[in-house]
Amino acid sequence: MIHLYQLPGAWGVSSVSPFCVKLEAFLRLSGLPFESKFGDPRKAPRGKVPWIQDDGTLIADSQRAIEHLVAKHELTMDARLSPEQQTLGHAIRRTLEEGTYFGLVWLRWGDPAGWDAYKPVFLELLPPVVGPVVMSVIRRQMIGKLHGQGMGRFDDQEKHQLIIKDFSALSRVLGDKPYLFGDEPTSFDATAYAFLASLLAFPVSSAAKSHVESCSNLVDYKNRFAARYFT
Ligand SMILES: N[C@@H](CCC(=O)N[C@@H](CS)C(=O)NCC(=O)O)C(=O)O
Questions:
Q1: In terms of DSSP H, where are the helices of the chain?
Q2: Which of 73, 97, 112 is the last residue in one of the domains?
Q3: Please, which of 51, 179, 200, 208 could form a disulfide with 185 given CB 3.0 to 4.6 Å?
Q4: CA 202, CA 181: separation in Å to the nearest integer?
Q5: Is residue 104 part of a domain?
Q6: 53 and 88 fall within a common domain
Q7: Domain check: are 64 and 87 in the same one?
Q8: Are 122 and 135 in contact (CB under 8 A)?
């Protein structure tokens, strides 16, 4: 049995972490049986969620877990893709995970309105007295990480523009296809779904969110994936 360790969900999405949503989306897409469990990043094999335990083997990192599952269970959802499609999928995935992600982190941890909405989700996981103190320490660390990564150095309008450009590119790649590479989903759709669902579900208005809401192909795609795999 595969155990998926992840952060809990909120606002109708399976986890507050897009990487956890990605891995759960992939597992659902694969049809492999799995059990979802709470994963505390402090206890994670590499200090981050998600991770899986597959017949006793621990695998940290959503992508490493996917590669392990594909190899072990001989999953073929990406087998039909051409080398060019594989390369484009890789570029889309890395853009969302290594670029857009930090925009989403800022929307939740940095932006004051986002923080007001995000903080309560984490406070529920912590003891009442120490919770607010712990959260303000973690917030300071996250803002420091955003500065270190670079996203935190842009002004707010620039940050929104970066997020908007990433999702505009995704919208153009998707076009009018049901999934990124045709009529059936591949592993790359798990990432695209996760980041779209994470942005669209977060209950705070923003220029970035309004832009994505105006891309009807992205909204339909997110809803299509959710209806097929998360209901
Ligand atoms: N490359 C990792 C990224 C995972 C990641 O960044 N997880 C965040 C939550 S969204 C985390 O655990 N952060 C805790 C920390 O950095 O201390 C993956 O694909 O799993």
A1: 18-30, 62-73, 83-95, 101-105, 112-123, 131-149, 156-174, 187-201, 207-214, 216-229
A2: 73
A3: 179
A4: 27
A5: yes
A6: no
A7: no
A8: yes
49 and 6 Cβ atoms separated by less than 8 Å: yes
Asked if residue 30 has its Cβ within 6 Å of ligand 1, the reply is no
Q: Which residues of 22-33 are buried (b: 16+ CB within 10 A; e: fewer)?
A: bbbbbbbbbeee
* Domain identity same for 99 and 42: no
Total domains in the chain come to 2
Residue 177 in contact with residue 170, Cβ under 8 Å? no
Ligand 1 centre from 2 Cα, in Å? Answer: 20
Q: Cα(198) to centroid of ligand 1, in Å?
A: 14
- Reading the block at residue 230, the tokens are 């998360």
Is any ligand 1 atom within 6 A of the Cβ of residue 41?
yes
- pLDDT by residue (tens digit) across 159-212? 999 999 999 999 999 999 999 999 999 999 999 999 999 999 999 999 999 999
Residue with tokens 């507050």: 16
Ligand 1 center to 20 CA (angstroms): 9
Instruction: Name which of 97, 142, 147 is nearest 115 in CA terms.
Output: 142
In tens, the pLDDT along 46-73 reads: 999 999 999 999 999 999 999 999 999 9
Region 4-23: mean pLDDT is 98
**Residue in 77, 91, 81 with CA at minimum distance from that of residue 187:** 77
- Given this model, what pLDDT does residue 125 score? 87
